[in-house]
Amino acid sequence: MAHPDLTSPLLPTSAPRPQHSAITIDDTPQTPKNTKTHPQNHNHHHGPHNNTQTAAASHPSPYEFLGGRPFSAPTPSTVDPFKNDTEKIDGVYELLKIVICLPIAAVRLLIFGVALGIGYLATKLALEGWKDKQNPMPAWRCRLMWVTRVCARCILFSFGYHWIRRKGKPAPRDIAPIVVSNHVSYIEPIFYFYELFPTMVASESHDSLPFVGTIIRAMQVIYVNRFSPSSRKHAVNEIKRKAACDRFPRVLLFPEGTTTNGKFLISFQLGAFIPGFAIQPVVVRYPHMHFDQSWGNISLGRLMFRMFTQFHNFMEVEYLPVVFPLENQKEIPTRFAKRTRQVLARALNVAQTSHSFGDIMLLTKASELQQENPSNYLVEMAQVESLFHINSLEAVNFLDKFLSMKPDSSGHVTIDGFLSALKLRFSNLTDEVFHLIDVDNNGYITFKQFLFASAHVMKQPLFRQACEQAFREYDVGGNDHVSEEQFGESIRPAVPEMTKDEIHELFGLFDADGDGRSSREEFLTCLRKNPLLIVLFSPQLGQAHTSGNGETTSDDIV
C-alpha cells in the first residue's frame, strides 16, 4: 500500500530510451501493478493528494461564525526527505576506515586547496576588465575558464570521486536550452560546472561566499531572492532571455530549491518551466552502503571530512530524454513541471512529497531551539502554501508560538501547554478549540495540526472582517485604541471564568509596546499571529443575522 505521506507510489525504473527524444507523460493517476486492491475499503485514495487526506471534525466548530467549510485535520507527516542516515560515525568498519584514510585525507585536502586557489586565480583573470556582463562571455574568456573547470574536476577527485559513471549524453543546446536536476549535495554544482559550464540560478547569498562567489559569477549566474516576488520575476525573465539566446550557455536549475537525501523528490519551483522551452532532466545518484553523501541535517565541515576519509565515493549521472512543452509552448507551467517531475521520479525510482525549502526553514528553527527531533515539525510546506496561501516566514512564526507551548520529545502539546502559550484558561470554549484541532481525541496536538487549524481560521471568508469589527466594536471613543478594561469587557461573554489578572496577561499579547492600550495595528497583528484567538469575540460577532440560505455573509459581521 502506498505510504500515506507520499504523493505517488514507488515507480519501476524505466527501460533505456533513445537520447534527445521527445516524451509525453500521462499524469492520470494509475494503480501500481503490484498493488493489491481492496474493494471493501472505500476510504483508500490514490493520486497527488494522498498525503493530504484529512479527518473532518465530528463536533461543531467554534469558528462557524466566520463562514466557510469546517476544519479538517491533516494526517501526520512521517517522512523526512532531508535526513542524512549516517550523520554519526557508527561501527568499527567506519572508524577503522577513517583512521586508515587520515593520511590520504591530508593529501586530498592539499589537492583541494591548490585546485581551489588556481581556479580562483584563473577566474579572476578571466573576469578582469569585463564590464558588459549582460551579454555572453567572450570566447577567449571562456577558454581561460577551462583552467577553472579542470580545477573543479580535481576538487571532485579530492573528495573521492575518482571516476563518475555517466549514462546518456547532454542534448544539444539548441534542442534543450534548460537543464534541471535533482539536488542532493554540493557536489552536483561542481560537477555541472566542469561538465557543462552552464548559467546557474542561485540564491543571492552565494555571491558573498569566499572564492566560490567569484567563480560562480563567471558563470553569469542568475541570482534570486526566494522571498522577493520582484526578484523571482526578474529571475524568470533572465532565464527566458538567456535560454532564448544561443550565445549563452545552457541554463541549469535545481527546481527543488534545496538539497534532499535523494530518497524522495520534493516539490518543484516553477522558474524553469514558465519560459516554455524544452528541458533536459538529469538525475544524480550516490550509491553507498556505509556513508550517506547527502547534505541534509549534517554540517558542511562534517560532510567534507567524511568525504575526505572514504576510499572512494560513488556518483552516477544520467541524462534523460528531453521533455518538450505541449501545445506549442502554451502548456501551463504547473503541468509542465509535473510531467518533468514524474520523469525524474521514475528514473530515480523514488516517491514524490510536498516538502519544500519552507520545511528546511522549520527544521532549522526547531534545531536552533534544540528540539530533540526536529523532523517532527515538517509539514510539507508546498501543500500548506497551496491550500492556505501561508508563506514560509509565517509558518516559522507559527512554529515559534507552538514551541512556546513546550512540546514533548515527540512534538506533542497537551491542552495545558496550549492554553498557557495563548494566555487562556480552561473553559468550555477553549476546550472546544483544542478538540477542534485534536480531532482524534489523542489528548495532544502536533505542529502540523496547529498550523493547519490556524491557517484554516485565517482563510475563512469573514476572518479579516471579523478582526476589524472586533476592534471597532470596543473602540468606544473612536480613539483608534482599545483599553485593557474595554478588552476585558469584550471577552467576558466568551470566557467568563477569566480573572482580572488572567485578562491582564492575555491583553499583553494585544499590547505589544506595553503602553496599557492596544492600537488598531497591534490588535490586528496579534490576531494575524494568533488567529485562533478570534473566537474570544465570537459571542458578539456571532450575533450577526444569517442570510436566507442560512449562511453568514460579510454584511452580517461588518
TrEMBL record:
Protein origin, superkingdom: Eukaryota
Cell compartment(s), UniProt: Membrane
Keyword Lipid metabolism: yes
Domain EF-hand: residue ranges: 425-460, 462-497, 498-533
Basic residues composition-biased segments: 35-48
Pathway noted in the entry: Lipid metabolism; phospholipid metabolism
Matches recorded under SUPFAM superfamilies: EF-hand (SSF47473), Glycerol-3-phosphate (1)-acyltransferase (SSF69593)
Keyword Coiled coil applies: no
Record's keyword terms, sorted: Acyltransferase, Lipid biosynthesis, Lipid metabolism, Membrane, Phospholipid biosynthesis, Phospholipid metabolism, Transferase, Transmembrane, Transmembrane helix
Region (Disordered): 1-59
Pfam families assigned: Acyltransferase, EF-hand_7, EF-hand_8
Molecular-function GO terms, alphabetical: calcium ion binding; lysophosphatidylethanolamine acyltransferase activity; O-acyltransferase activity
GO cellular component, as recorded: membrane
One BP annotation, GO: phospholipid biosynthetic process
UniProt similarity note: Belongs to the 1-acyl-sn-glycerol-3-phosphate acyltransferase family.
Protein's recorded name: Lysophospholipid acyltransferase LPEAT2 isoform X2
Gene designation: LOC116204928
